[in-house]
Amino acid sequence: MPTTTATAAHPKAAKVTGAVWAALAIVYVVWGSTYLGIRIVVETMPPFLSAGARFITAGLLLAGIVAWRHGPAALKATRAELGSAVLVGLLLILGGNGLVVLAETSVPSGLAALLVAAVPMWLVVLRTATGDRPPLRTLGGVVLGLAGLAVLTSPGLSGTVRLSGVLLVLAASVLWSLGSFSARRLKLPGNPFTGSAYQMLAGGTGGILVGLVRGEHHGLDVTGYSTASWLALGYLVVFGSLVGFTAYAWLLQAAPLSLVATYAYVNPVVAVALGALILDEALTWPIVLGGAIVVAAVCVIVSTERKT
């Protein structure tokens, strides 16, 4: 269950419980599959408008669930808490997720997931810049993970992928890192599910506005969207946003940040496997070897964070 703001602000105070492992497993598997879902959605739907609709729908559903289970009073938030939730939502959803959705109009789902795996590196940089000193084994796990990513991404950056798409995903990883880092230091609603609802509504609204500015509404024809895109969008709303994002938001308050960040190492393995099975993306020896290195890095970081 949610921790207090004071406890959430100090990663060493967070304890790794069974609920933490369950939420982490959801983020590992469900978010790994969202890259495939996004790729299918943008085959026929506009990127920012579809992403905005996804998170607004999920945010409204989550707000309704919170009000139903705990009463309308559970949705109350101070001006400072609401402002923090909006900021984090814009960084995570509009910036982090939105740029990935845009990039996947030209970048394969597996490669996008591999590039997002740079998130732990940026988190360590941010932690170090603010005076924190991650354990040496955590740093070693990050280095090992990055080595695995180098092996994984080497075939994909041979010129067959648009550089602009790659840069968009890298920018998304930086913005997602900033959002995750800020969420641990800002005063958010005490109920993490309430905070998640406001974050999704803010990020989704931002996505709609960006989509309108980009002109994605011109010539919009919903009858032209494929059944696969509609099903994928529904999956992203229910599992990617409502279940996955809520689990992630809770983890940011209940678990060590470095442990939460390990999802970025596991997600690529899941995404690459699904891409190979469903989208016929190549499963070569660099992907197998790199995936094994990444899993080893996750084990190093997880084992270290359990002792903090």
Would you summarize the structure shown here?
With about 300 residues, this protein is mostly helical. It has helices at about 5-10, 20-40, 45-70, 80-105, 110-115, 120-130, 135-155, 165-185, 190-215, 225-255, 255-260, 265-280, 285-305.
* Secondary-structure class: mainly alpha
How many β-strand stretches? 0
- Distance between the amino and carboxyl termini: 20 Å
Proportion of residues in helical segments:
over 70%
Task: Give the radius of gyration.
Answer: 18 Å
Beta strand %: under 5%
Order of helices and strands: HHHHHHHHHHHHH
Please state the overall shape, judged from the principal axes of the Cα atoms. globular
Taking all residues together, what is the mean pLDDT? 83
Instruction: Give a quick account of the main beta sheet: strands, pairing sense, barrel closure.
Output: none
Number of helices: 13
Which spans have pLDDT < 50 for at least 5 consecutive residues?
1-13
Structure write-up:
The protein has 308 residues and is mainly alpha-helical. It is built from 13 helices and no strands. It has helices at residues 5-8, 18-41, 47-70, 79-103, 109-116, 119-129, 136-153, 163-183, 192-213, 227-254, 257-260, 263-278, 285-305. Helix 4 crosses helix 9 (192-213). The relative contact order is 0.23.
